[in-house]
Write a structure and sequence with these properties.
Number of helices: 8
CATH superfamily: Ribonuclease H-like superfamily/Ribonuclease H
Distance between the termini: 22 Å
CATH topology: Nucleotidyltransferase, domain 5
Number of domains: 1
Shape: globular
Radius of gyration: 17 Å
CATH architecture: 2-Layer Sandwich
Strand content: 5-15%
Helix content: 40-55%
CATH class: Alpha Beta
Number of strands: 5
Order of helices and strands: HEEHEHHEEHHHH
Largest sheet: 5 strands, mixed
Structural class: alpha/beta
Oligomer: single chain
Length: 208
């Protein structure tokens, strides 16, 4: 079965309106019990095509790592923002996700003229934006942002595993797998767990 690839149709339509730099934005880690939520923002170079960009969920880890290097090497600008578990608990996961995306966009240099976001609209941006349902499957820029965010978060979770291997963060990346829930039942929550989150009744092993 062929893998769905994102396209540049949306970005090209916006560029034809006169916007030179169009940023794609996405976040990962929203549904996890542990670890940060991470947002990526990226402005791709229109005339530099990076082959293979797709929604990070349909790519294997080696593909994401390769594409991370190619995207960051070819991008006009990119940034990744991280919101830690204690702040997620303080302001809630929805606000934390929006904050991460806003920080990622505002850290871009140069700032984009237009922003396209997977599903959401980001509050308090100084430039026009469009939320696109299924954007990480439809837009190359949003898919690229999802790859940057996913690779960054996976690396963070691997580092957390090296510090405290009891929970298996390197395997499930903080999602509510059976192995993760068993470890929480045995050891309790760690400093990297979100205290306001409760384990689901069904094991969710599908990353966002």
């Amino acid at each position: 079965m062929s893998r769905p690839r994102a396209s540049r149709t949306v970005e090209n339509e916006i560029r034809r309106l006169g916007f030179v730099h169009v940023a794609g934005v996405d976040e990962v880690g929203r549904g996890c019990l542990a670890g940060p939520v991470v947002a990526g923002a990226v402005v791709l170079t229109p005339d530099h095509y990076v082959a293979g960009i797709a929604d990070s969920k349909v790519l294997v880890a080696a593909e994401r790592e390769r594409l991370f290097d190619e995207i960051t090497g070819a991008a006009v600008a990119w940034h990744v923002a991280v919101i830690e578990p204690d702040e997620i608990d303080r302001i809630n996961i929805h606000r934390a996700s929006l904050k991460a995306m806003r920080e990622a966009v505002l850290a871009l240099n140069p700032l984009p003229g237009f922003v396209i976001v997977d599903a959401f609209r980001i509050p308090d941006l100084p430039m026009p934006q469009r939320g696109i349902v299924g954007g990480d499957r439809r837009s190359t820029a949003i898919a690229a942002a999802s790859i940057l965010a996913k690779v960054t978060r996976d690396r963070i979770m691997a580092e957390l595993h090296a510090v405290d291997p009891r929970y298996g963060f390197d395997k499930h990346k903080g999602y509510a797998t059976k192995a993760h829930l068993d470890a929480v039942s045995h050891f309790g929550y760690s400093a990297m767990h979100r205290r306001t989150f409760r384990p689901p009744t069904l094991f969710d092993t599908i990353p966002d």
